[in-house]
Design goal:
mainly alpha, 113 residues
């Protein structure tokens, strides 16, 4: 039969093991969430890079085509530059709604999932 002091020692030993296990579980969950987030960001960076290259070549082709239609190649590049300048100003005006909030929500969702 165990004495109260032995029961108390056993309780403290179990509590210590519980805290160690809980800390290890928390650490593993954080590693899982961090690796998931980093891999998601890496995937998005790679897709962005490939999309960017496609976009650049597409725009060079469009600028050359517009310049061909107008008769002067450089006008095609100026027209596309003006178009993207206007688009850039519109995106800048709505940056919180279009960029900041969705990115923040996506990161929060990944970490709380």
């Amino acid at each position: 039969m165990e004495t109260p002091s032995q029961n108390l020692e056993s309780l403290f030993a179990n509590a210590g093991e519980y805290l160690e296990t809980k800390a290890e579980l928390w650490k593993l969950k954080m590693v899982d969430k961090t690796s998931e987030t980093i891999s998601s960001i890496a995937e998005k960076i790679i897709l962005f890079f490939l999309g960017f290259i496609f976009f650049i070549f597409l725009n060079i082709g469009l600028a050359l085509l517009i310049g061909y239609w107008i008769g002067q190649t450089f006008w095609g590049f100026f027209i596309l530059a003006a178009f993207y300048g206007i688009v850039g100003l519109l995106i800048h005006a709505m940056k919180d709604k279009l960029i900041k909030t969705p990115v923040a929500n996506s990161l929060i969702e990944k970490f709380l999932k």
